[in-house]
Amino acid sequence: MAQAAQINVLDINTPLRVEHDKKRRQFSIRLNGSHDRAVLLYEYVGKKTVDLQHTEVPEAYRGREIAKHLAKAAMDFVVEEDLKAHLTCWYIQKYVKENPHPHYLERILH
């Protein structure tokens, strides 16, 4: 008898919690308490400048606005820490375009 494939489903009642690991320079969301994680990676490229480099969500979880939570957390971090940001990651560029808050826009380096 064939076994059913495991389906990765986010529990709708479980809020997504973004964790910020400053040492590893990443934001992450643990998905369903499993080993699966969505991550946003950044690097300092100057004393007060970061490069938001890459966002990745496991394929089974894509299309559920998980990356949006990571992008918001990263941009809020840039604002809170009074940093400037390069947006190398296409998804963060898209997020800022869709959420053109002045406190975000004034911190982006072109």
From TrEMBL:
It holds the Pfam family Acetyltransf_CG. It comes from the Eukaryota. InterPro entries: Acyl_CoA_acyltransferase (IPR016181), Gcn5-rel_NAT (IPR045057), GNAT_YJDJ (IPR031165). Residues 19-109 form the N-acetyltransferase domain. Belongs to the NATD1 family. This is Protein NATD1.
